Amino acid sequence: MKNLLLLFVVVLSVGALSGCEEPEPKRPNILLVLTDDQGWGDLAFHGNDSIDTPHLDWLAQHATEFTRFYVSPVCAPTRASILTGRYHLATGTSWVTHRMEVMREEEVTIAEVMKAAGYRTGLFGKWHNGKQYPHDPVGQGFQEFFG
What are the residue numbers of the active site? Predict the structure, then answer.
């Protein structure tokens, strides 16, 4: 009788727990900081003792720093590369004027990938990869844009 009661309690417990949904694992917040016209040596945490960058130094100590990302000498192609993970010329972006800064609309950006994975996406600051939809930040996957 005691074993039957114990079995009954176990069956009820398992039945009750099977109806519970496991909470979704917490996903990390992701903040990508891309500065414009700043060289590797323009930061205190890279050894520059003439420039004080305490907030960026703190971020570098508590985050992941890309140390092998190769850039174009100008801003729009570099931004297109980091947004897509592709060589800038493959995105249609080759310069900063005369519509050569406009990234092709069919490029898949990090914002589109993150949005599809359930993240909220936002871009705050300089875009310079196309002004009109679908080339603007909203057309390229950002849910919020201020810049």
Answer: 75, 128
